[in-house]
């Protein structure tokens, strides 16, 4: 059951209170596909890089069983580059550099072998490009997941609202949910957003866990209390990748199974923030993932009886 | 198994985006004892009011089975009065009036019938007065719970640190935990705070639920996503009262039972914010409480299996 993931594959340069990286691999599709690869054996990416993108980093995807037939390599052009610096509390970050490069006129190519995909994850990217991918798939996937961020609400709201009508599930963070709906209460915001198109909504709350909404159903997932968040970059993409990867692996998109998928997504995100960039999620074992999922289950279990 | 609760019993005047009250009953001991009364049949308060405090409001306590032998009524004096106004998001509030009145020289009296108490809740109040109550109990209660707030960290830190050494369990909110420990990570903050005295710590996170820490154990409790928070006043006191009341009722202070107590405390707090002041928690049925606890259980339940 193949899972197609679209998003950026890029270079990042990250500074946190704990250190600073050189140019390392980043981008929504990189983070999400690596996370999804632990669950689905048929992860296929649609992205674009320049010829400065190292061959060995593409081979990293292959080692994780990720198909890169839809990854365009533009000769004579440069990969997208983002540099950012996190404040002391790691909740705010300043963008230091954004060089769009190949992303400026990204025209996604869908290889024939991607056409039968059952699940589609539209990673954080220009909404109009996300829409193009949906239109270029001849058969509508069974589940279309959209991840986005406040930047697109500020700069491309009409396109975003348009693509929202075409998807099944949206993942955003709490501040973004409030901004998109114009409601402070997350419950009210969720109801409004589900009227914009997606039947299901995941609100990511970082250290406070995540909420899953569908019709009148709500699920609250805990987050693992962490000693230290080392680098939050990519955690949202990894959540979306782990979540969608788990759904693709199990082929079950019931609300009950989505709850479990939120837990797997949260577990993957909790690994992501432990090291810079993709370092931690490139090197995980199924045993580690299961252990962390069990930790989340243990963390939030309790028993009640009528009093 | 009696539960003694100390704290203020007072008048509040509250303004939220949804409306404004006249002088209504408030104070930590009022909120906490009403919440605890649904669980324990032996709730006894230690507090002080002026002769302006209406007899019918004292009878409200009696109707809830609360003993007021330790409630001093000072002739010719006035009750503590606080007026506050909440901002639009209800997360920040401005204090408009604080009249200490009888609280200025509150000297707590412990009636003989209180001396055998098994559980003690030191509601939010001057730390030195909280300490006096501990010292005036001839037999140390099995469980001493302390609730406090940032105001005392700013104005009476030494006394607070002193009383912290004498208690078993502390309840504070996330910002206060960060302030007290000087650590941003709540896990690190919790470890530091548990070295200050209390073996167990509850960090209240409002709309994000609560965390319970003891040694290396952690429990994450969900919060009910609410349509609207009408008035947050007293929610923390109600949490502490419901939590301690449940422990007093069951007589079981194991970590497992404390997890359930956190859920009952959260359920009570979720009622509290639905109406102004104590209105909602004065008028609850066991059936409503059980239904909400079941809702919290439903909200956070999921199943995992190795993948």
From TrEMBL, chains A, B:
Transmembrane parts of this sequence: none
CARD domain span: 130-213
Molecular functions (GO terms): kinase activity
Keyword Transferase attributed: yes
One GO cellular component term: cytosol
One Pfam match: PfkB
Tagged with keyword Zinc: no
Keywords of this entry: Kinase, Transferase
Protein name: Sugar/nucleoside kinase (Ribokinase family)
